[in-house]
Design goal:
Layout (H helix, E strand, L loop, with lengths): L3 H7 L7 H15 L1 H7 L5 H22 L4 H7 L2 H26 L3 H23 L5 H21 L4 H18 L5 H26 L10 H8 L1 H16 L4 H7 L2 H13 L6 H27 L1
Length: about 300
């Protein structure tokens, strides 16, 4: 069955494992340096970049399944309309997340992108409260409150909500929520997601080629072509590594480790891309970091009690 990988992994999901830690660490480090790639393709429209991310991720995901002898699962998945319907939800959320992230980095809003992934674990708490009926109480409520203050400060200073941060946080939060509800192994789940996104991606790439607006295979544009071809590696490898690692770690461990990527993104925004980081943003980020300290402390405390 297609969920045999997830079933076997679930046997160790109650405790942390070294392979899980190394998988997750690798994925977060790769995500942390992803803005460098996105800066290289900033002259290409974000929708075209995302279309190629989908297009070239599929063969990589398929190769992984072939290597692991799991390609037979795909046929059974495609014969299950309910499974396809369930997979369409995380596929939609991850596509919006990718598009927003590429736009954010390419348009000079890397700090907002970092903020989005900083507040993501706190957004996940809210999602759990809304969809699973979990109570917001104690330190978690304090952490969420501090994050709300940070967002309010940024909104006040900028004259509007930091929509990039909020879209990234909520789309990734809902993606992770619905992804975990899929009774599939991580590799099969990712393959199904990009397969569902393939038709609109191909249609858009063909449209760009037909209208002469494509950066792919453009005369004299070998650099852009190579960068777009590499979009599959940039997308599929960290996502599949993360998906495998998440199955082998406690949720509390994943929640703490996910600060690695936005911290690297934040450092690049300030020191490599030289984005403006004034006193107002410093104060807002101080509230976010305080929220994450409170949240992390609550995770450790619950873990010790367990």
């Amino acid at each position: 069955m297609a969920n045999s990988d997830s079933t076997s992994a679930a046997t160790v999901a109650g405790e942390d494992t070294l392979p899980g830690f190394l998988y997750a660490l690798t994925a977060y480090l790769l995500w942390g340096v992803l803005p460098i790639y996105i800066k290289l393709v900033e002259a290409i429209p974000p929708l075209e970049v995302v279309a190629h991310r989908v297009l070239w991720s599929l063969p990589i995901a398929g190769a992984v399944l072939l290597f692991r002898g799991r390609m037979g699962d795909v046929g059974s998945l495609l014969r299950q309309p309910r499974m396809i319907g369930m997979a369409m939800i995380p596929a939609a959320f991850v596509s919006v997340n990718w598009l927003t992230y590429v736009y954010a980095i390419g348009s000079g809003h890397t700090l907002e992108a970092a903020l989005g992934y900083y507040i993501n674990p706190l957004v996940s708490i809210v999602i759990a409260a809304l969809l699973l009926g979990e109570r917001l109480s104690g330190l978690k409520l304090v952490a969420v409150g501090l994050a709300v203050v940070a967002v309010a400060l940024l909104a006040y200073n900028a004259g509007g909500l930091p929509w990039i941060s909020l879209v990234l946080a909520f789309t990734w939060g809902f993606y992770a929520f619905f992804k975990r509800r899929l009774p599939l192994g991580p590799n099969q789940g990712f393959f199904l997601e990009v397969l569902l996104l393939l038709a609109p991606a191909v249609a858009y790439v063909v449209y760009l080629q037909a209208t002469g607006n494509s950066h792919f295979l453009r005369a004299g544009g070998m650099r852009d072509t190579l960068l777009l071809l590499s979009a599959g590696l940039i997308t599929a490898i960290p996502l599949m590594i993360y998906a495998n690692g998440a199955k082998l770690l406690k949720l509390s461990t994943i929640a703490i480790m996910q600060y690695i990527a936005p911290t690297l993104v934040f450092l690049m925004a300030v020191f490599l891309f030289h984005e403006e980081f004034d006193a107002g943003k410093l104060l807002a980020f101080a509230f976010i970091w305080a929220a994450l300290i409170v949240y992390t402390w609550s995770m450790f405390r619950n873990r010790q009690r367990g």
